[in-house]
Amino acid sequence: MDFRDVIRLMRPRQWTKNLVVAAGLVFSGKLLDTALLGETAVAFVVFCLGTSALYALNDVLDADRDRAHPVKCDRPVASGRLGKPAALGVSAVLAIAAFALAFFVGPDFTAVFAAYVVLQLLYTFALKSVSIVDMLVIATGFVLRAVAGAVAIEVPVSPWLVLCTGLLMLFLAAAKRRHEIVLLRERSVAHRPVLSEYSAELLDSFMVTLSAATITSYALYTFFEELAPDYLLMLTIPFVIYGVLRYQYLVLSKDGGGRPEEILLSDGPIIIDVALWVTASVAVLYIAPRFLS
Questions:
Q1: Which of 95, 74, 66, 82 is CA-nearest to residue 6?
Q2: Structural contact between residues 113 and 102, judged by C-beta atoms closer than 8 angstroms
Q3: How far apart are CA 201 and CA 85, in angstroms?
């Protein structure tokens, strides 16, 4: 067994998705609290271990279907480089480590993390075959990540955090489904049966609706946010608009969207936009109040 294939099985590039656990810390105004920063870091590690355990399990269950995918066919299990028993063993070890570390964070956090794991197992064995519900489950998984991050540091779970996260992730889920249909064409159903319920045109309409809803919900959040003085958080709205529209452009014009984490890590304009949004948000939430109070 090649250790490099074990690392590939864990899909570390997708750990960027777990950064959403830090949303509660940043937007509660407590980013500079080193103790809470440490708790958030541990929560991030828990979700990295947990999601890797689930990825390994999914690779075992979906090995035959992954062989029909031009990219996923190179995954360790689908390619035959890593046996299914070995992959299941890695999954079990990672899951045990994740729950052990979750208990260290606290019982409430462990409960939310357990709910996330149960939801993902339901998705793996049943819900991924139900159209629209499959995308809702993906979005809910990210919402639970964000909620878990807030619970870990014992700050209130903002309804805006839930709404904005959920809508954005629904948008990304629709983009991912569209990418799979366009990339695989007649082989798409063999890889993911639920794709027979979708069409590129239908998913295009979903994306338009969800992108508008995402931008609107974030804009409303900035208007009602109380930590930033004089509605200054509204200055970050253009970055969100650009990011959503840029992503939609990459999906519709460049057939991207299959792996959101790759766009986040490789598309220059998206990287710059996210960096500017983070910088502006931190400046408005943490620096501006000192000068305007």
A1: 82
A2: yes
A3: 41
